[in-house]
Amino acid sequence: MPALLTPPHRCFLEGNMDQPELICIGEGAAADGHLVAFSRVCPGKEEPNDDSAAIIYTPCGSIVMAVADGVGGAPLGYKASAIAMECLAESLTASTLDPALHSADLRPAILDGIEKANAEILDMGTGAATTISVVEVRNRIARGYQVGDSMAMIVGQRGAIRWKSMSHSPVGYAIESGMIDEADAMHHDERHIVSNLVGSRSMHIEIGPAVSLSARDSIVIASDGLFDNLHLGEVSAIARVGRPLDRMNSLVKLATDRMEQTDADVPGKPDDLAILLMTP
C-alpha cells in the first residue's frame, strides 16, 4: 500500500533504495494523484549517495518537490545536497506554521530556503556545493526553481514536453541557443561542467513561468543521473503512460542499463540517481 503524504515533509538523504516508493497525495492537495520517489547510489560506488530529494506538503494543500545533486568529486557533496533539502523544508514549514499564512505565496519561502542553504554550505568552508531543482504545485499551477543541472519537466498526456528547466552549464546554454542539439550534447566533453551551484558566492536562482496543469500531466524532477543517460523524448515517453510505479521502474531500469553499457554511440554515464515523479 502506498504511504499517504501528510504535512510536513519527507526527505530522502543518502538513499540507496532497492525499489521506488509510492506516495498518495492527500485529498484536496494541489494535484490529486500519486508521487513516486527513488534514490540510489551509483553502481559500484562506495561513498554515500550525493543525490537527495524532498517532498513537502503544506497545510494549504500545496506540494513542493525538490532534487539536489551534491557536486561529485567535491568534499561532502552528499552533505551539501542534504543541507539544501533540509533548509528548503525548514523554510516552507516555518512559513506555514501561522494559519493566517496557509494560503500565502510560497515563492519567498522557497527562495529563502535555497539562499539559506547557500549560506550554510559556504560557511562549511570545504568547497562543497550542490545543484537544486524545485517544483511547487498549488491550485493546479506549477512553477519551477533552478540552480545547476538537475532538471524538471512537465509532460502532457500525448508526450509533449509542456515545460522544462534549463541546465545551468555551458552545454545547457548551447542547447538553448541552438548551437548544438541534444544528441551531440549527450556526448560533449564538457557536459559535466556546471556553471551555477548552491554553495557559490555567485549563485543565482532561475524562476520558471507559472504552468497550468492539465488533468493528465506528469512532472519529472531528477538529477543528471537520469538526464545524462536518457534523451528527453525517452523520459517523456516513459513518464506519461502506465501505473505510477511502472513508470518509475522503467525510468530506473533504462537509466541503469545506460550506466552499465559500453557502446560509444549510446549515452552512458555511471552516476548517483534521484527521481521524483508526480502522476495523475
From TrEMBL:
Residues 35-280 form the PPM-type phosphatase domain. GO terms for molecular function: protein serine/threonine phosphatase activity. InterPro entries: PPM-type-like_dom_sf, PPM-type_phosphatase-like_dom. Pfam families: PP2C_2. PROSITE patterns: PPM_2. Keywords: Hydrolase. Its EC number is 3.1.3.16. It comes from the Bacteria. This is Serine/threonine phosphatase stp. It comes from Rubripirellula obstinata.
